[in-house]
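Figure caption, in words: inputs first, then the predicted bound structure.
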Amino acid sequence: MPTFQHSFLRGFLTARLTDIKVDAHVAAVVADNLVESCLKGHDSHGVTMLPRYIAAINEGGLDPHAEARVILDAGALLSFNGGGGFGQVVGRQAMAAGIARAAQYGVAVVGMADAHHLGRIGAWAEQAAAAGLVSIHFANVNSRSPVMPWQGREPRLGTNPFCVGIPAAHQDHPLILDFATSIIAGNKARLAWNAGQELAPGCVVNDQGQPAVDPRWLMTEPFGALLPFGQHKGSGLSVVCSLLGAALTGGMTERHDNRDKQRILNSMLSILIDPAKLGGASNYPQEIAGMMAWVRSSRDDAAVLLPGDAEHEKYQQRLAAGIYIDDVSWRQLAALENSPRALKA
Ligand code: NAD
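Bound structure (nicotinamide-adenine-dinucleotide present):
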């Protein structure tokens, strides 16, 4: 049961990427993003993603040299194509451009089509919040689509994440609401499978549509399905994430088959708002602080968490105590060191 310091993992992941000729600065950006996800408690989008990324590079579905390509540049509207490049790179580029536009216009609408995996979407909301901006993100996932629409019989949807970030100057971290529209993120099933654990009841169904707890139904044929959170509500929000995140930005919705490929494509629509420029909101810092305190006061033992609190707490703990990786996932990572595959020129 290995536990690792974050600094070791940053170095290890960077080295596995440079082994296959990924540029050192790109490798470091990707490694940092994956390690940060683990530090924030989202192992599902952390370092154990690397074997799949490298498999996608070797298969030609992830272009490690791609940069965000401008498709539209029209004032507060910006649109990019990610070209299957590292989401950690093209996502950061698109957000940086959006942040600059929101500073100019008070708002920016940023489309990102067909990036490779954008990872933990909260990272993008944190980037915007660090610049003082509210942000809203709708993303879809074009991969093997494991999620059953509400009352469906066959899976049709990705785990399509939704995220909102709100700067909260009165505390040391922003409010970040960030979740998959499936009841659990798909990669949580992969981690449970690797660790030999069952899933909580109510997350998956088997290939006959019957309730199940074995993660095998998401890992190997015949496949079952993941359920949306909140019945018709999560299912509806997932469809909206696909329509806004992909259809509207020029990205691939889930109806385009990608089931046998290693690559994971994300498309995302982000709306960035400068709250200081939104007329009528001059008292917003006080109101945000007041409302958050009001919700926390629901009980007097500080047990009510607000979005972003859990990640902030985990971060402090894991910086000190390290990051646990189950044996199977660590063996998959360690195997990369022994068999790096040369990146095609
Ligand atoms: P989750 O179920 O852990 O929910 C996380 C959200 O709930 C956070 O906003 C967190 O602050 C909040 N939260 C947690 N505990 C809370 C509590 N006790 N009280 C109040 N709020 C609480 O998240 P998930 O659905 O498993 O998603 C995990 C990650 O996976 C997210 O970062 C998401 O962006 C990412 N994801 C990415 C993709 C992709 O393709 N890139 C797809 C799906 C999910």
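The CA atoms of residues 133 and 274 lie 5 Å apart.
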